[in-house]
Protein 1
Amino acid sequence: MRPEIVLFGDSITDQSFRHGGWGASLTDIYSRKADIVVRGYGGYNTRWALFLLNHIFPLGSTTPPVATTVFFGANDAALSGRTSERQHVPLEEYKENLRKIVHHLKEFSPTMIIVLITPPPVDEEGRQEYAKSLYGEKAMKLPERTNEVTGTYANGCVEVAKELGVDSINLWSKMQETQGWQKKFLSDGLHLTADGNGVVYEEVVKVLNGAWLSASEMPLDFPHHSQIDPHNPEKAFQQTCL
Amino acid sequence: MRPEIVLFGDSITDQSFRHGGWGASLTDIYSRKADIVVRGYGGYNTRWALFLLNHIFPLGSTTPPVATTVFFGANDAALSGRTSERQHVPLEEYKENLRKIVHHLKEFSPTMIIVLITPPPVDEEGRQEYAKSLYGEKAMKLPERTNEVTGTYANGCVEVAKELGVDSINLWSKMQETQGWQKKFLSDGLHLTADGNGVVYEEVVKVLNGAWLSASEMPLDFPHHSQIDPHNPEKAFQQTCL
């Protein structure tokens, strides 16, 4: 049974198998070592994610994943009173929902590596341009998300991770260390470009390497083809397979 | 339990999650509908693949995949007496091995959609350039694979598919319909470029659509976010989840 790594999150997880996507890159690097399982739900906030927990991570499973990334907050941080209000979740509830998710995952498997990922920064100008491209002059005049408010959710996410002793990636901070992050990492002010996906990929790999899940140190599932004697192939498969 | 689609094959399957990869694109299109499980083994021929069958597709499993792509032949078709001789499998044995794989899969699940994919065409000049880039003047002078011989394996693959009543994709023929296929679809004369991956992706999607596995017609696992009433989220989840 090959170990599983689950990617649980919103659209940024759901879209992680598009060109240059961080989910696809993880699948590639963990080839023949671990299966990457994507559970991304576009538009979802943590409040709605709670409804999925028992279905995606059913307690009592005999084969829980070895690691799970939890990547919500971009929708929770949508502002109340603006066009994406329906997705808004107050900061304290967001933190409490993250706690519930982590508690559930720990109950699911006490040894699972849990990685909380903060929402990425928001490029408000990019969001506005994107809205205009969709709706023209009818586009909202006031931003539906701001970078500052999303930053408070990112901090809240990191706080919860520290409080509960799990790993975290502060994507909001990390991305803003690079000049021009607004266009380099974000395609519409919120979702990720290939470069933005690259940042998530590198940060997730760092965390997994720092645990006991470094792809380069994990064994292949079956013999490397160079280890197979063409005149006696059985031999290479005896140890691992028979 | 989400349906699974297994990609079983050699390096062309193993590398299908790199940029533009056909495995990644399938994962994206089947998002929230089916899990794509990659079982690609670089350098493997069908003779060695047989050793894996009982492990990857253990008879008696209660949750067999709904579909499996079987994509071998590029290594079987390596020429005897040349530098990749160790991977060579005679044509008749290749066909017989494919039959064994199909029989096993049918025993595993009589309803599984089985898609045999032929090896892609070989760009002998591209192979030679690639060998020179690795080994300089020490590179082999005679090709280790030829397009003509690989074509006989492609025909053999299609014949087995017809004989056993399963689907097939003649990638060898399909790719050669496009002018400039040598560089457009192949990166080193054998493995696929992003465009080459695109061809495999399109052909696999066509076959799955023609069966009962069209992604656009499959239901989402959980409610689309627009269907969730923010004031009464329970309601949307009641039918699918509770």
Protein 2
Amino acid sequence: MRKRLLVSAIALGSTLGLVGTALADDGLADYRDRFEPLPHLPSIPADNSLTKEKVRLGNMLFFEPRISASGVISCATCHNPALGWSDRIPRATGHDGQIGKRNTPTVLNAGFLESQFWDGREPDLESQALGPIQADVEMAMDLEGALSRLEGFELYQRRFAEAFPGDPAPISADHLAEALASFQRTLNTPDSPFDRYLRGDLEALSEQQKAGMVAFVDSGCIACHRGANLSDSQFHRIQVPGSTDVGRFDVTGEESDRHRFRTPTLRNVAVTYPYMNNGATETLEEAVAIMGQEMLGRDFEQATIDDITAFLHSLTGEMPDIEVPALP
Amino acid sequence: MRKRLLVSAIALGSTLGLVGTALADDGLADYRDRFEPLPHLPSIPADNSLTKEKVRLGNMLFFEPRISASGVISCATCHNPALGWSDRIPRATGHDGQIGKRNTPTVLNAGFLESQFWDGREPDLESQALGPIQADVEMAMDLEGALSRLEGFELYQRRFAEAFPGDPAPISADHLAEALASFQRTLNTPDSPFDRYLRGDLEALSEQQKAGMVAFVDSGCIACHRGANLSDSQFHRIQVPGSTDVGRFDVTGEESDRHRFRTPTLRNVAVTYPYMNNGATETLEEAVAIMGQEMLGRDFEQATIDDITAFLHSLTGEMPDIEVPALP
């Protein structure tokens, strides 16, 4: 199967006159053209310019456990830099050990998504940021309480004033969200092997990974997993094994949204296991097989699963080089 | 009060012929001689040599939440690098949000202590390391389960084999403890202003900090808070406000140990609030006043409290420059 695909791809390249036109062209230009390398930054909203002061403050706030009711849970607890900025457990575990109903999405490259959360209930990182702080099963903190704790630290008074100059009361819910969103917009993973491949380093992928890319396109995975972040940010109906989650129906109440979820990114998917909205799928191979069955209505052959899995491994980029901040 | 102490100290220096013998001598050599600068490393036990392989593995294990029952609590949760390697809440909060009975001690410079935990129930970092993993109110994990989770990762199999070469089954409770202890022995904070002062940079302390050092010696604080880590590692009877904790009595059952606690380090005390075994004391000024009353039987004047507090701020050293590891 793998061989046939590669041969046909090379034949296609020949037909198009591509073989021989560039040094060591692998004949897969038509496939590469279906993808986009990840930019180093997502687009920045006009009303929240990305400044180093906001990023520094957002970095502090991201690691700040005292904006949780217990005082020990921060954004970094579930979006753990040691664990692909996620938690590697099936479902998020938060305040008092409560277990949420969904798998924690990584924050890596989240700025490239056009809606946030599995059900897309918030449009951007600013509106997303305050949700987990207040959610009963996550940080379980009332917003006023969180702001008042921050007010208690002289260093935060200074850092908020630096990040939002000219505001007489810079510590506010909006600014908390804006600083967190700014920091998160810097958490990107460009320069994965696949990005290097798309930019012309044709040896950055192994032959198996290239076969996987071809299968990914030819099988139709790319219909939803497309664009720089390999997500169309759209909602698709899916019920993975063991899930009764109604997904976006909870947000809109529209029957047509029942069991719809926003397409997750595939960037860094190899280091953000387990998979699916319920986190019940442990390995990438299983995830590929399930997606083939549920979304594409086909049983992938094992060789195809292996190829696509190899390709997905090429989507692991350079992790952001952040410092653990010294909190007040 | 501050002036009087400084004047008398300078007079003492004159008497001893110290003034004028060294460039810009501040006349406090006799006081400096009572202290020791912090070495860059504590002594290393003969049966657990400090190797970079063990430190690297220990660094991973320290940040590893999957050796907790919930999968989200690691050593770094309560010994948080962002918070002076402690948690800055009164009492440790662990598994399922349970609140322990004591304040979390910092792990910074813990290798310099001759007994571990508030009640000194373990003699060294190796024997300490496995306690919090198994404690019901902390990580709540059975040791076999923790080891079996680690066994499940190929990277840990490799890293344990590298750290403990020649052992056919390198993933063991002893090695888990040895790696964690090795990492913790690197978490030291030399080169605080006070260390620079003791090494001859007489301008590293302000005049108020020097007055605080003098008061610290003259008032007797140094009787227990002595040595490189400003702890004698001995047990002293104390019942701070609000505490009914019997301390070391729980360990030995000896009536003479009732309410005895091991002297905590004062290194980095300014960044490891709140204070006392029950964490009920929020500020350093309060802590100084309480220690004066409880341990020295005296009511410090406010100026003395301010001086000693200023001195204690000079004990904040350079935080260890560690990386958040990439876990498997």
